[in-house]
Write a structure and sequence with these properties.
Layout lengths: L10 E4 L8 E6 L2 E5 L3 E7 L10 E11 L7 E7 L2 E9 L2 E5 L4 E4 L4 E5 L4 E6 L7 E10 L10 E5 L4 E4 L2 E7 L1 E2 L2 E2 L8 E8 L4 E5 L5 E8 L2 E3 L2 E3 L4 E5 L4 E6 L3 E8 L5 E5 L2 E3 L2 H12 L33
Antiparallel strand pairs: 1-26, 2-23, 3-4, 4-5, 5-12, 6-11, 7-10, 7-12, 8-9, 8-11, 10-13, 14-15, 15-18, 16-17, 18-25, 19-24, 20-23, 20-25, 21-22, 21-24, 26-27
Length: about 325
Protein backbone atom coordinates (compact mmCIF):
# COMPACT_ATOMS: atom_id res chain seq x y z
CA UNK A 1 0.00 0.00 0.00
CA UNK A 2 1.18 3.50 -0.79
CA UNK A 3 1.53 6.48 1.46
CA UNK A 4 -0.69 8.84 -0.56
CA UNK A 5 0.10 11.91 1.55
CA UNK A 6 1.01 14.66 -0.93
CA UNK A 7 2.82 16.56 1.84
CA UNK A 8 4.97 13.64 2.93
CA UNK A 9 7.63 14.75 5.38
CA UNK A 10 11.18 13.48 5.63
CA UNK A 11 11.88 11.81 8.96
CA UNK A 12 14.67 9.83 10.52
CA UNK A 13 13.63 6.76 12.47
CA UNK A 14 15.37 3.92 14.25
CA UNK A 15 18.37 3.83 16.51
CA UNK A 16 18.23 2.54 20.06
CA UNK A 17 18.52 5.81 21.95
CA UNK A 18 14.77 6.00 22.66
CA UNK A 19 13.95 2.33 23.18
CA UNK A 20 11.91 1.80 26.32
CA UNK A 21 13.91 -0.91 28.11
CA UNK A 22 11.12 -1.87 30.48
CA UNK A 23 7.43 -2.72 30.24
CA UNK A 24 5.21 0.32 29.58
CA UNK A 25 1.60 0.96 28.54
CA UNK A 26 1.68 3.76 25.96
CA UNK A 27 -1.57 4.20 24.02
CA UNK A 28 -1.03 5.59 20.51
CA UNK A 29 -3.75 7.65 18.85
CA UNK A 30 -4.21 7.11 15.10
CA UNK A 31 -4.20 9.79 12.42
CA UNK A 32 -6.95 9.51 9.79
CA UNK A 33 -5.68 9.51 6.21
CA UNK A 34 -7.69 9.26 2.98
CA UNK A 35 -6.44 6.48 0.71
CA UNK A 36 -7.90 6.96 -2.73
CA UNK A 37 -11.57 7.84 -3.22
CA UNK A 38 -13.32 5.39 -0.91
CA UNK A 39 -10.89 4.10 1.72
CA UNK A 40 -9.95 5.91 4.93
CA UNK A 41 -7.16 4.48 7.04
CA UNK A 42 -6.09 4.98 10.63
CA UNK A 43 -2.31 5.51 10.66
CA UNK A 44 -0.65 4.20 13.84
CA UNK A 45 3.00 4.27 12.73
CA UNK A 46 4.82 6.53 12.26
CA UNK A 47 3.13 8.35 15.14
CA UNK A 48 3.74 11.64 16.90
CA UNK A 49 4.69 9.62 19.95
CA UNK A 50 6.54 6.69 18.37
CA UNK A 51 8.04 5.87 14.99
CA UNK A 52 9.07 2.20 15.11
CA UNK A 53 8.41 -1.06 16.96
CA UNK A 54 11.33 -3.33 16.20
CA UNK A 55 11.67 -3.15 12.42
CA UNK A 56 7.94 -2.35 12.00
CA UNK A 57 7.89 1.24 10.74
CA UNK A 58 4.46 1.80 9.14
CA UNK A 59 1.02 0.57 10.22
CA UNK A 60 -2.35 1.47 8.66
CA UNK A 61 -5.63 -0.03 9.92
CA UNK A 62 -8.72 0.23 7.70
CA UNK A 63 -12.34 -0.85 7.90
CA UNK A 64 -14.52 -2.64 8.36
CA UNK A 65 -15.98 -0.72 5.41
CA UNK A 66 -19.09 -1.61 3.42
CA UNK A 67 -17.85 -1.36 -0.17
CA UNK A 68 -20.73 -3.21 -1.85
CA UNK A 69 -21.55 -0.13 -3.95
CA UNK A 70 -17.99 1.25 -3.98
CA UNK A 71 -14.83 0.41 -5.92
CA UNK A 72 -13.10 -0.39 -2.65
CA UNK A 73 -9.33 -0.23 -2.46
CA UNK A 74 -7.81 1.38 -5.52
CA UNK A 75 -4.08 2.11 -5.12
CA UNK A 76 -2.37 2.76 -8.48
CA UNK A 77 1.16 1.56 -9.29
CA UNK A 78 3.74 3.12 -6.97
CA UNK A 79 7.34 2.34 -5.99
CA UNK A 80 9.02 0.99 -2.86
CA UNK A 81 12.63 0.56 -1.80
CA UNK A 82 14.38 -0.60 1.35
CA UNK A 83 11.36 -2.25 2.98
CA UNK A 84 8.90 -5.13 3.07
CA UNK A 85 5.14 -4.64 2.79
CA UNK A 86 2.79 -6.92 4.72
CA UNK A 87 -0.84 -7.18 3.58
CA UNK A 88 -3.19 -8.60 6.22
CA UNK A 89 -6.96 -8.96 5.89
CA UNK A 90 -9.81 -9.89 8.20
CA UNK A 91 -12.46 -9.31 5.53
CA UNK A 92 -12.41 -8.73 1.79
CA UNK A 93 -9.87 -9.38 -0.94
CA UNK A 94 -6.96 -7.40 -2.37
CA UNK A 95 -5.53 -8.02 -5.83
CA UNK A 96 -1.75 -7.51 -5.90
CA UNK A 97 0.19 -6.81 -9.11
CA UNK A 98 3.86 -5.88 -9.27
CA UNK A 99 6.63 -5.06 -11.72
CA UNK A 100 8.07 -8.58 -11.31
CA UNK A 101 4.92 -9.95 -12.96
CA UNK A 102 3.41 -11.25 -9.72
CA UNK A 103 -0.38 -11.50 -9.65
CA UNK A 104 -2.10 -12.71 -6.48
CA UNK A 105 -5.41 -12.28 -4.68
CA UNK A 106 -4.81 -11.98 -0.95
CA UNK A 107 -7.71 -13.18 1.21
CA UNK A 108 -8.42 -13.04 4.96
CA UNK A 109 -5.60 -14.36 7.13
CA UNK A 110 -3.33 -15.03 4.16
CA UNK A 111 0.10 -13.40 4.06
CA UNK A 112 0.98 -11.15 1.15
CA UNK A 113 4.65 -10.24 1.70
CA UNK A 114 6.56 -8.07 -0.76
CA UNK A 115 10.28 -7.43 -0.30
CA UNK A 116 11.13 -4.30 -2.28
CA UNK A 117 14.90 -4.42 -1.73
CA UNK A 118 16.61 -2.27 -4.36
CA UNK A 119 13.24 -1.32 -5.80
CA UNK A 120 10.05 -2.42 -7.49
CA UNK A 121 6.53 -1.10 -8.00
CA UNK A 122 3.11 -2.58 -7.33
CA UNK A 123 -0.61 -1.83 -7.27
CA UNK A 124 -3.38 -2.95 -4.92
CA UNK A 125 -7.08 -3.02 -5.69
CA UNK A 126 -10.31 -4.63 -4.69
CA UNK A 127 -11.10 -7.17 -7.45
CA UNK A 128 -14.26 -7.02 -9.56
CA UNK A 129 -16.52 -8.38 -8.25
CA UNK A 130 -15.42 -8.12 -4.62
CA UNK A 131 -16.80 -9.07 -1.18
CA UNK A 132 -19.07 -6.57 0.55
CA UNK A 133 -16.73 -5.70 3.43
CA UNK A 134 -13.08 -4.66 3.55
CA UNK A 135 -11.15 -4.79 6.82
CA UNK A 136 -7.44 -5.18 7.37
CA UNK A 137 -4.04 -3.69 8.02
CA UNK A 138 -1.11 -2.71 5.85
CA UNK A 139 2.31 -2.71 7.43
CA UNK A 140 5.92 -2.04 6.47
CA UNK A 141 9.09 -3.61 7.82
CA UNK A 142 12.38 -1.72 7.43
CA UNK A 143 15.21 -3.72 5.87
CA UNK A 144 18.61 -3.53 7.59
CA UNK A 145 21.50 -2.02 5.68
CA UNK A 146 22.97 -5.43 4.81
CA UNK A 147 19.77 -6.41 2.95
CA UNK A 148 18.22 -3.17 1.73
CA UNK A 149 19.58 -3.70 -1.79
CA UNK A 150 18.49 -7.33 -2.01
CA UNK A 151 16.70 -8.55 -5.12
CA UNK A 152 12.95 -7.77 -4.90
CA UNK A 153 10.50 -10.65 -4.56
CA UNK A 154 6.90 -11.39 -3.62
CA UNK A 155 5.56 -14.17 -1.39
CA UNK A 156 1.97 -15.32 -0.98
CA UNK A 157 1.37 -17.76 1.87
CA UNK A 158 -2.30 -18.86 1.93
CA UNK A 159 -1.76 -21.15 4.94
CA UNK A 160 0.07 -20.05 8.08
CA UNK A 161 0.89 -21.95 11.28
CA UNK A 162 -1.15 -21.39 14.42
CA UNK A 163 -0.65 -21.57 18.16
CA UNK A 164 -3.74 -22.46 20.21
CA UNK A 165 -4.67 -22.27 23.87
CA UNK A 166 -8.03 -22.16 25.67
CA UNK A 167 -9.73 -19.04 24.34
CA UNK A 168 -6.89 -18.09 21.98
CA UNK A 169 -5.86 -18.80 18.40
CA UNK A 170 -2.63 -17.10 17.30
CA UNK A 171 -1.82 -17.10 13.59
CA UNK A 172 1.92 -16.53 13.09
CA UNK A 173 2.32 -13.94 10.33
CA UNK A 174 6.09 -13.43 10.61
CA UNK A 175 8.74 -14.69 12.98
CA UNK A 176 8.13 -17.14 15.80
CA UNK A 177 5.49 -17.42 18.52
CA UNK A 178 5.86 -20.11 21.19
CA UNK A 179 8.27 -22.17 19.01
CA UNK A 180 5.96 -21.93 15.96
CA UNK A 181 7.49 -20.15 12.95
CA UNK A 182 5.95 -18.46 9.89
CA UNK A 183 7.23 -19.34 6.40
CA UNK A 184 7.52 -15.61 5.59
CA UNK A 185 11.05 -14.30 4.96
CA UNK A 186 12.48 -11.95 7.59
CA UNK A 187 15.75 -10.04 7.76
CA UNK A 188 15.79 -8.95 11.41
CA UNK A 189 14.56 -10.65 14.59
CA UNK A 190 10.86 -9.73 14.65
CA UNK A 191 7.39 -11.15 15.12
CA UNK A 192 3.90 -10.50 13.83
CA UNK A 193 0.86 -12.49 14.90
CA UNK A 194 -2.91 -12.30 14.58
CA UNK A 195 -4.60 -13.09 17.92
CA UNK A 196 -8.23 -14.21 18.00
CA UNK A 197 -9.84 -14.34 21.46
CA UNK A 198 -13.15 -15.83 22.50
CA UNK A 199 -15.48 -13.94 24.86
CA UNK A 200 -14.18 -13.96 28.46
CA UNK A 201 -10.85 -15.44 27.40
CA UNK A 202 -8.14 -14.78 29.98
CA UNK A 203 -4.75 -15.84 28.65
CA UNK A 204 -1.05 -15.06 28.90
CA UNK A 205 0.99 -15.12 25.70
CA UNK A 206 4.74 -15.85 25.99
CA UNK A 207 7.04 -13.03 24.79
CA UNK A 208 10.75 -12.48 24.21
CA UNK A 209 12.13 -10.09 26.86
CA UNK A 210 14.70 -8.61 24.42
CA UNK A 211 11.96 -7.58 21.96
CA UNK A 212 9.86 -4.45 22.11
CA UNK A 213 6.16 -4.97 21.43
CA UNK A 214 2.91 -3.26 20.51
CA UNK A 215 -0.62 -4.52 19.92
CA UNK A 216 -3.09 -3.20 17.34
CA UNK A 217 -6.75 -3.82 18.17
CA UNK A 218 -8.65 -5.00 15.10
CA UNK A 219 -12.07 -5.71 16.62
CA UNK A 220 -13.90 -6.40 19.87
CA UNK A 221 -13.35 -5.34 23.47
CA UNK A 222 -10.09 -6.49 24.99
CA UNK A 223 -7.86 -5.45 27.89
CA UNK A 224 -4.12 -5.78 27.26
CA UNK A 225 -2.13 -5.84 30.51
CA UNK A 226 -5.22 -4.27 32.15
CA UNK A 227 -5.43 -1.45 29.56
CA UNK A 228 -8.60 -1.30 27.42
CA UNK A 229 -7.58 -1.10 23.75
CA UNK A 230 -10.31 -0.05 21.31
CA UNK A 231 -10.42 -1.14 17.65
CA UNK A 232 -8.12 0.99 15.51
CA UNK A 233 -5.81 1.94 18.37
CA UNK A 234 -2.36 0.65 19.30
CA UNK A 235 -0.78 0.04 22.69
CA UNK A 236 3.03 0.23 22.86
CA UNK A 237 4.37 -2.17 25.48
CA UNK A 238 8.14 -1.55 25.62
CA UNK A 239 10.69 -4.30 26.34
CA UNK A 240 11.45 -6.61 29.24
CA UNK A 241 8.28 -8.71 29.09
CA UNK A 242 8.19 -12.50 29.29
CA UNK A 243 4.42 -12.74 28.86
CA UNK A 244 1.43 -10.62 27.89
CA UNK A 245 -1.84 -10.79 29.86
CA UNK A 246 -4.95 -10.59 27.65
CA UNK A 247 -8.58 -10.48 28.76
CA UNK A 248 -11.40 -10.34 26.22
CA UNK A 249 -14.73 -8.80 27.25
CA UNK A 250 -16.17 -9.99 23.91
CA UNK A 251 -14.92 -11.89 20.89
CA UNK A 252 -11.88 -9.89 19.82
CA UNK A 253 -8.92 -9.77 17.45
CA UNK A 254 -5.51 -8.16 17.89
CA UNK A 255 -2.30 -7.93 15.93
CA UNK A 256 0.85 -8.45 17.97
CA UNK A 257 3.89 -6.66 16.52
CA UNK A 258 7.38 -6.84 17.95
CA UNK A 259 11.04 -7.32 17.37
CA UNK A 260 14.54 -6.56 18.45
CA UNK A 261 14.88 -2.74 18.57
CA UNK A 262 16.14 -1.57 15.17
CA UNK A 263 19.70 -0.33 15.65
CA UNK A 264 20.07 1.74 12.47
CA UNK A 265 18.66 5.17 11.78
CA UNK A 266 16.60 5.24 8.59
CA UNK A 267 15.19 8.02 6.45
CA UNK A 268 11.57 7.34 5.46
CA UNK A 269 9.74 9.53 2.94
CA UNK A 270 6.67 8.72 0.84
CA UNK A 271 7.18 5.06 -0.18
CA UNK A 272 10.96 4.96 0.17
CA UNK A 273 13.33 4.01 2.96
CA UNK A 274 16.99 4.98 2.71
CA UNK A 275 19.85 6.12 4.90
CA UNK A 276 20.23 9.68 3.66
CA UNK A 277 18.41 12.51 1.95
CA UNK A 278 20.45 11.63 -1.15
CA UNK A 279 19.07 8.07 -1.17
CA UNK A 280 15.53 9.42 -1.17
CA UNK A 281 16.16 12.09 -3.80
CA UNK A 282 17.72 9.52 -6.12
CA UNK A 283 14.82 7.11 -5.66
CA UNK A 284 12.29 9.83 -6.40
CA UNK A 285 14.16 10.91 -9.54
CA UNK A 286 14.44 7.35 -10.83
CA UNK A 287 10.75 6.67 -10.23
CA UNK A 288 9.76 9.80 -12.10
CA UNK A 289 12.07 9.18 -15.09
CA UNK A 290 11.25 5.47 -15.27
CA UNK A 291 14.83 4.25 -14.93
CA UNK A 292 14.17 2.07 -11.87
CA UNK A 293 11.23 0.24 -10.20
CA UNK A 294 9.85 -1.34 -13.37
CA UNK A 295 6.32 -1.31 -14.78
CA UNK A 296 3.13 -2.82 -13.37
CA UNK A 297 1.26 -4.41 -16.25
CA UNK A 298 -2.48 -5.05 -16.19
CA UNK A 299 -3.57 -2.19 -13.93
CA UNK A 300 -6.18 0.05 -15.55
CA UNK A 301 -4.78 3.45 -14.72
CA UNK A 302 -1.71 5.65 -14.54
CA UNK A 303 1.02 5.23 -11.91
CA UNK A 304 1.23 7.60 -8.98
CA UNK A 305 3.56 10.59 -9.38
CA UNK A 306 5.86 11.26 -6.43
CA UNK A 307 5.26 14.36 -4.30
CA UNK A 308 7.82 17.14 -4.35
CA UNK A 309 10.64 16.73 -1.86
CA UNK A 310 10.44 19.26 0.98
CA UNK A 311 12.94 22.09 0.77
CA UNK A 312 14.03 21.74 4.39
CA UNK A 313 17.14 20.21 5.93
CA UNK A 314 16.79 16.72 7.33
CA UNK A 315 16.67 16.78 11.14
CA UNK A 316 17.27 13.45 12.86
CA UNK A 317 14.62 12.90 15.53
CA UNK A 318 15.17 9.27 16.46
CA UNK A 319 12.43 6.80 17.35
CA UNK A 320 10.17 9.37 19.02
CA UNK A 321 9.55 13.09 18.66
Amino acid sequence: MSNLDRDAALSVCGGRGFVVAEPVRELLTPRRVQLGESTEVRRLLPNLGRRMVGAWCFVDHYGPDDIAAEPGMQVPPHPHQGLQTVSWLHEGEVLHRDSLGSLATVRPRELGLMTSGHGLSHSEESPVPHPRYLHGAQLWVALPDAHRHTAPHFEHHPALPQVTAPGLTATVILGTVDATTSPGTTYTPLVGADLTLTQDADVRLPLEPDFEYAVLSMSGEVHVDNVPVLPGSMLYLGCGRTELPLHARSEASLMLLGGEPFAEEIVMWWNFIGRSNGDIAQARSEWMDGSRFGEVKGYDGAPLPAPELPAVPLKPRGRVR
